[in-house]
Design goal:
The complex is a heterodimer of chains A (492) and B (87).
Chain A (H helix, E strand, L loop, with lengths): L7 E6 L2 E10 L3 E10 L7 E7 L2 E5 L6 E13 L2 H8 L3 E5 L6 E16 L2 E9 L9 E7 L16 H6 L7 E2 L8 E2 L5 E8 L6 E5 L5 E4 L31 H11 L23 E2 L12 H11 L6 E2 L10 H10 L3 E2 L3 H8 L10 H26 L4 E5 L5 E5 L16 H8 L6 E4 L6 E5 L2 E5 L13 E8 L2 E8 L1
Parallel strand pairs in A: 17-18, 20-21, 21-23
Antiparallel strand pairs in A: 1-2, 2-3, 3-4, 5-6, 6-8, 7-8, 8-9, 10-13, 11-12, 11-15, 13-14, 14-15, 16-17, 19-20, 22-23, 24-25
Helix pairs in contact in A: 3-6, 6-7
Chain B lengths: L1 E2 L7 E2 L28 E4 L2 E8 L9 E8 L7 E8 L1
Antiparallel strand pairs in B: 1-2, 3-4, 4-5, 5-6
Classes of the chains: A alpha+beta (492), B mainly beta (87).
Amino acid sequence: MPGSFGQTALVAHEGRFYASHFVPVGETRARFFLDAVDVSDPAAPRVTSVSAPGSLLGIDDASGKFLFLSYARQSESVSDRAECAKRHGSRTHFDASSEGSEGTCTWLRYTLHLAHLEADKLSVEAKLALNDGERPDGVVVVSTWSHPTSGQVDGNDQLPSQSRCSEGLPRENAHDLSAAKGRPRRRTIEAAAARACWCAPARTGVDVIDAGNPRRSSFSRQARPRRPTTWRSTATKGSRRRGWLKSPASPSSLRRIQWSSLGLRSPHTESSGAWHRAVPDDAACAFCVLRTSTATLTSSDVIEASQAQFSWDKLICCGDLLFPGPKPLETWKLLIEHQALVTQGLVDRAIAELEPERIKPKDAAEEARLSQLFDLHEQLGELIVMRLGKLPVTARLPLENGDEMLIVHGSPMDPTESFSPELSEDEMNALIGDDPADIILCGGSHVAFDWAVGDTRIVNVGSVGEAPGGGYSAYTVIETTPLGISVEQLTI
Amino acid sequence: MLDLSDASAPKLVAQETLSLSETDFRGGYGLDAVVPSGARVAQLGSTLGVVQATRGTVATDPSRMQLEVVDLSAPENIRKQNAGYAG
């Protein structure tokens, strides 16, 4: 697991802070450690590390037992991506020599380890292997399980609170999966000591592990209708990038990305060369796509054209709204006039947060870009710039057929990382993370596509001003009905 | 820090800036992601633990985490100590 973020955060227990980390061993293996920081004397904290069976999930306060999770890579040969996901869930990696050919499906199997710490040595008391495709998220260990009440699991992907976890477990729906293979037997969960639980996000339901005697109780949310798993693209895929995703930007690199999103080099960067990424233009919108800009077409052109062809009801823009188009204020007024549903893009945030006065242009292109940025500030005024900085990063829209649409500039897991045709399916899955949305509407990569990854449909609405190759504008029209949605991607 | 001994008249007794990590410990991306756990700030009595983390991008630039211990036992003299922990 050398490429991943190997640490877990702090758990406080009996005068110590605990965390865990791993050290890569070779290319595919890792050794985990439990780190304990004794702060009985806060002025002189003492750190000790002991070998651990996996990453730390939590500590049961009552029993003092530690819950760890170990990871084992598995692989097998399968016919295609869909088969890989069907057999082992959405968190899989499929590698084939060519598109459509048989390849290797790789996935992880997780095992829970219950251990106690004595004289700075961990002793494992019990193990519980999770089912294929199961991965705990948002783990919380609770000391007592106090008569859980009926309720629905919150699809929120944050760490669940103890109360939410309790509330999320309807006792009448609990099943004991340890009792029998095949159909789980109904079992009522009584109040009991030392249970560890995790509230998994919407897709996987809630599981409870009895920390005194590891066994599983579980229930699933009402299954949502599944679409057939397909993998398709309306865009040219080009060569697929292999390997894992890069990690999200650190604060300093986020600044660099923000500067480069404006087409400028960071004042802290002395290096020369190409800009960090292609300069994005403004507005990636759906139902009608907005992206004013360097292209000859403006947002009003696209709106007029789309209105002439379709009678749409809602204008959605997936961020990067106003820069570097020639008429930012006019575009803003259009968005207001149509009561557009908008989310914040990198450029919007950069406009609100960065100070162009700090930049000394290094060439004519940067000077022109900077001048345009000053003009933008002058046209918009402080109030609109401030509003750009406070736009929501994501928005959600319930659809007639019961699906939920998520609107985001980049991706649910990282606003600076965009879905793009070069990503593999597991990279796409990683960017989806645990977000429960059925349809994700995005625009960051400027390339219009409509893909289904697992049970999530990803629609990149394209770009009006920065469509690949230039010379045309792309926008997307989505028709919603109680039976489903249709997506049409058009160019002008 | 707020003194709430008189709930009708809470008093601000001390103020300290904590540098919270932007990393949310969600464990990274992809198949190899570690399942996240714990919190960026944890408390033991009057002692806070605050973790700072940076994510690496590849094996040669590994993720790092540092722990700062904040002693709040004397509000007039809040002390911060790097625990020397770099996970």
